[in-house]
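An example makes the point: we let one protein speak, the chain in one-letter code, the fold tokenised, and here it is:
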Amino acid sequence: MSHAAAAPVTGAPSVPTIPVAQVAPWALFFGLLGLLVLFFVSTDQGAISLVGGTAIHEWVHDGRHLLGYPCH
């Protein structure tokens, strides 16, 4: 029976670096998108509404209760 020899360890594995300059615009975009979604779910009840009517309120109604926002 032959055993294969293990490769010699040359050092610790390299950890990839994250280029902040490339990630920052995407983080800003998704952060603003998240704030927009939070606005629609939490505060859009007609008093400060971007869209007239109650359509958005009805679309996010169950999500509001799931997140603990009162709406009745």
Observations:
- Residues 65 and 71 are 8 Å apart (CA to CA).
- The two ends are 76 Å apart (CA to CA).
- The chain is about 50% helix and 0% strand.
- The mean pLDDT is 76.
